[in-house]
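User: Can you model how TNX sits in this protein?
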Amino acid sequence: MKKSVLITLAMAFFVSITSTAQSNRADYRVVPLPSAINGIKSNDFKLTEQSLVNYPKGNRDMERNAMMLSGYVEEMTGIHLSTRPCSDTKERPGNITLMLDETINGDEAYTITVTAKGVEISGKTPAGVFQGIQTLRKSLPVGITSVVNLPAAQVSSSPRFGYRGMHLDCVRHFFPVSTVKHYIDMMALHGMNRLHWHLTDDQGWRVEIKQYPRLTEVGGWRKGTVLGHNSPVNDGIRYGGYYTQEEIRDIVSYAAERYIDIIPEIDMPGHMLGALTAYPELGCTGGPYEVWCQWGVTDDILCVGKDQTLQFVKNVLDEVMQMFPSEYIHIGGDESPRVRWQECPLCQQRIKQVGIVAEQGKSPEALLQGWFTGEIQKYLSQHGKRIIGWDELLGCNVSTSATIMSWTGAEPGAKGAKLGHDVIMTPNTPMYFDHYQTKSTWNEPMAFGGCATLKMVYDFEPVAADLPADKRHHIIGAQANLWTEYVTCEPQIDYQVLPRMAALAELQWLQPDQKDYNDFKARLPRLVEIYKLYNWTYRAKSLVLENEDKPQN
Ligand code: TNX
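Assistant: Here's the modeled complex, given as structure tokens:
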């Protein structure tokens, strides 16, 4: 009896010293896992309130990086670090130094060198340094308030893909500026660099366009929202909202400070009921139209037989380009039924006028969508912009300078790459984060349908095995999409994306042979400590349950 009490006490003591010994030590095995972590013969670096964050004097981006790092360290550990501009890159004992290093290969690559003397975070660009900062931040233990020991090591990484995206639909449900910024914060933590922002659709127009005020005054509001899963039954409560240009600029610069480009999506010629309700003359029938109170695909799309429609789109894009410096503009192109065009004399006239002849498997109306997309593409390219469109565009003979988003599956992506298009892989299974995270859905918040477990996301390989070697570079990245038909508020956004975003981050950063699901699962709880620190909602069951892709009782 006495002996067992002693053993218990000894064990308790052992657990307490090992846990304190571990808990003030940084661990570089974060998510996404850096590609190399090599120990250096040296004592630990001791991070204390006395440590400064140095940055190259006069470099505004690096100054902001230094302030961000200081803010993160304080949030993680309570340790406050001052920042200091330096006019040379001499080693400064006791400090963290942010540096630019031309010899580093890759714009977003970074190296973190830790010795007893200090910490250096270097990148070829400030964006690379920022990625190093994220890794250092995630390696810190949460909740330490005095000293953190950083083991001596060289940690470096370079992302596998240049395009590492997340998408957010702010139409089906509208989210405040603070929520969009929060989404950007989550992306930064996970090392992502592109936010695809879905701003217009049948259920609302959410971006202020000064030349067309009715887009938001009328097109931004619907009379009700579907009750339960999709049906014509709605709650009868007026719903809507939009972002002013000032708010958009604020969000764009918030993202840019975190090295995230925002790619706006103005979906055309389908998913346009918001605009058609405001300006019915842009449709084939002339309306009247109503901002949709249900989900799905409507036959009412833009009439491209009218010159006025093309002018409208160009005018809208003029303002969009002024708000979004991104090189890409997403022009949608998905789910555009062409039944109205078949009946519309103006669209039929356009088909003749531009000399469209049907091809095998491609109707004149499909090629009319290709012509329309080409006109918009030409216009945008005159302004130095490139287009992204959904994979339906592959059926419309669009030019290979259009980047394709493969969503109906992975096959269109491979097909697009073979044709010479750049491709972003976002196949609905498993890259649709509006889908359930388990097959056992009875105890889950309502979601769109489908199933994408954490493991399915982790295991997704964007580059098809049989894609020829000379086409593989066309797969420029991967993205997950959050459509919000059933996502109504910020905690629900978080629940849908966390922790699946962590699995996505790892496949965006790591080479396939570096991926290891069990190892990822072992590293995940430390990332989740950070979610908890910020009070982010996440699906805790994904951390403990396995085989959720198998139906359960
Ligand atoms: C398909 S993805 C859509 C969206 C829906 C989504 C729901 C795409 C190009 N179109 O309009 O919101 O499915 O998962």
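A couple of observations from the model: The pocket of TNX is lined by residues 334-335, 390, 407, 432, 434, 448, 483, 485 (CB under 6 Å). The chain has 18 helices and 21 strands.
User: Helpful, thanks.
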